[in-house]
Please model this.
Amino acid sequence: MTTKENFPVTAGSVIVPFGHVIGNEKWRGSEIAQRLQGKVRLIFEDGLGLVDFHLSNRTCILYVSEADLVAGDEFKRRLVRFRNASSLGGIVIVEKTQISDQYFLAVQKLVVLELGMVLLPVANQGEAAQLITQLVREQSKDHNSNPFLRKQCSQLAEPSVFRTVQQIPGVGKTKALLLLQHFGSIHRLCNASVKELEPVVGQTVAQQIYAFLCS
Model:
């Protein structure tokens, strides 16, 4: 799904209640929208521009489909325009399939190394819907201390960082993203105390992370 060049970059003025997601009108009737229905409160609007889904904390989802990857460089221009013109935190969800796998490393380099955004690979729209649902539920638990509310998005030093954090005992995709958004770098994460980790992932996982990183 492509976005016209004359679309605005983002819907930064949109205020989204916690537990809600505002979706770009172009996604109405799609599989991802159908999977989100009943899991989160989904509202469609025309004014999101380059953004596909606007979460409740000034964090946006930009979705790159298999078709986008195969079609050429239009999606790259879209991501660059968003990064250059927006102060919002952008999470890029990319469909990694047998067909699109050959393009994935180049996309990973662009998103993570050059643009400093978070990249999350999914197999299909159904998996993407599950991921968005997890993100919304995590941030709705305690929005006062939620790391997504921090204005500064994480700047990942290398593509392997996110995968490394995911491998820590008790940490999956969602908690890895929360940790990197909260601490901003693997260096700060490695030097965090249990007390600093607890507000992000809870006491048990915080202890597991501390033991893993300090061993």
In short: The longest helix spans residues 125-141.
